[in-house]
């Protein structure tokens, strides 16, 4: 039994996972892990996707790399997918949601074009990540949070910090 909480902020690229995760780590003292950075540092890839112009994550190696740290607890994992991670890793999953017009603008600003841009916006429209989270984890731990404005971000941070503090009280 862990004595410190593990959190998964997830959602379509561009919804604010990284901003939320990093700020949350500062406010709570939890360890922030960005899966893209972890994979880059450890070369945890299994080829390259020409269509999307990005490396393909070696999911098994990522899970192996993180398993011990996750068992210890106190980790915020930032990734745009969630069904690759073992259910036992997380105490709560936050699926960030963004209005698709706003998401389109954010992704365009990142240099997304064509199929990559369209597919990511469609992913948000069809709630793909939320449905993935609901299938991969107990429904009681999966929550959707709006992530459209700086005010949404601040509200989400306050809410998650409160939840984290309560979890720590209940489990220690």
TrEMBL record:
GO terms for biological process: ribosomal small subunit biogenesis; rRNA processing. Keywords: ATP-binding, Cytoplasm, Kinase, Nucleotide-binding, Nucleus, Ribosome biogenesis, rRNA processing, Transferase. GO terms for molecular function: AMP kinase activity; ATP binding; ATP hydrolysis activity. Its EC number is 2.7.4.3. Its main location: cytoplasm. Residues 34-57 are annotated as: NMPbind. Broad-specificity nucleoside monophosphate (NMP) kinase that catalyzes the reversible transfer of the terminal phosphate group between nucleoside triphosphates and monophosphates. Has also ATPase activity. Involved in the late cytoplasmic maturation steps of the 40S ribosomal particles, specifically 18S rRNA maturation. While NMP activity is not required for ribosome maturation, ATPase activity is. Associates transiently with small ribosomal subunit protein uS11. ATP hydrolysis breaks the interaction with uS11. Monomer and homodimer. Interacts with small ribosomal subunit protein uS11. Not a structural component of 43S pre-ribosomes, but transiently interacts with them by binding to uS11. Interacts with COIL (via C-terminus). Belongs to the adenylate kinase family. AK6 subfamily. This is Adenylate kinase isoenzyme 6. The lineage of its organism: Eukaryota, Metazoa, Chordata, Craniata, Vertebrata.
């Amino acid at each position: 039994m862990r004595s410190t909480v593990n959190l998964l902020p997830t959602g379509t690229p561009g919804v604010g996972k990284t901003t939320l995760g990093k700020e949350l780590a500062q406010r709570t003292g939890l360890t922030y892990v960005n899966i893209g950075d972890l994979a880059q540092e450890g070369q945890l890839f299994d080829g390259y996707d020409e269509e999307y112009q990005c490396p393909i994550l070696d999911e098994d190696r990522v899970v192996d790399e993180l398993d011990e740290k996750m068992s210890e607890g106190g980790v915020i994992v930032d990734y745009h997918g969630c069904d690759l991670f073992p259910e036992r890793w997380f105490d709560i999953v936050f699926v960030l949601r963004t209005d698709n017009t706003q998401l389109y603008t954010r992704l365009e600003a990142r240099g997304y074009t064509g199929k990559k841009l369209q597919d990511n916006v469609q992913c948000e429209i069809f709630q793909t990540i939320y449905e993935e989270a609901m299938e991969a984890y107990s429904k009681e731990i999966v929550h959707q949070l709006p992530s459209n404005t700086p005010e949404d971000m601040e509200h989400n941070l306050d809410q998650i910090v409160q939840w984290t503090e309560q979890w720590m009280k209940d489990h220690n």
